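User: Hi! Is it possible to get a structure for several chains at once, not just one? Here's what I have:
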Amino acid sequence: MPEKEGGVVMQLPLARSRRGTWWVTPLLGWLGVGLVALSLILIFLYAPTDSVQGQPQRIFYLHLPAAWLAYFSFFLIFVSSIAYLLTHRTGWDRLARASAELGFVFTTLVLLTGSIWGRPIWGTWWTWDARLTTTLILWFIYLAYFALRSYVSDPERKARYAAVLGIIGFVDVPIIHMSVLWWRTLHPQPVVVRSGGPAMPPAMLLTMLVTLLAFFVLYLFLLVEKYELERMKDTLVDLRDQEL
Amino acid sequence: MSHGLVYLFAAFFITWIILGAYILALHRQIQALRAEVEMLRAQRRQLSDAPTAGELSKQLTELP
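Assistant: Yes, the chains can be modeled jointly so their relative placement is included. Here is the combined structure:
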């Protein structure tokens, strides 16, 4: 903080933001748009129609990447929560905050696309099946995470409590994955991550991989933007505190 | 249109509407915060240009 004679002049710590990395977000954004366009072409024009389920099977190409990103978000919360508790660096808490919001969006998408897919195939929008129920629990854990953050006012305690919830809540992710193996469910068994390799035709697998990549790039774009937003919020809070 | 296609398009429509709305909301929040940051930056610049208490007292003592 530079000092002038008889007074202190505060400088904004914002000038250093994203210097040298300004190109990351546009690059991810445009790459994401290109990959999404390519994945849509593959989904509707290249991937074969499933002989049993027909057209609704194509919902799989949205449902699976959304599910993986919902789990990945909680994995990021888990890792950054541990890192925050060990280092007390705000950056880790900020990363957890950013991942939580994205995870909530993608878990909502999993539940919605799954419900729409389930209606023509199972004949119902919802069933209290183990996979569906544990995914709904994940959605509620995300809600609890936001509620906890909004109820605690002290920033340090807020970050600490949220980190503990982030670590405990992650337990649900492996349970979701294993639910179709542990219990008898309506939800199909894993078709991609399974012993013996993916159980689908190469054209479907390629389409799924491209769609997964498109969603992942889109996710990174959103994560960078959300992290930047959280960083700006923290800076503004600091500046307002300095003014008071 | 067969029933299967209705469900297929509903799933794609809802997914892209939710993602589009989220991207838009994020973009608007960033724009609003940037504007606030710029405003604060301008205020700070004005503060730093203004004479400090030390400078003011020095000017006062130098008055004839």
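The radius of gyration of chain B is 28 Å. The longest helix of chain B spans residues 3-49.

User: Great, thank you!
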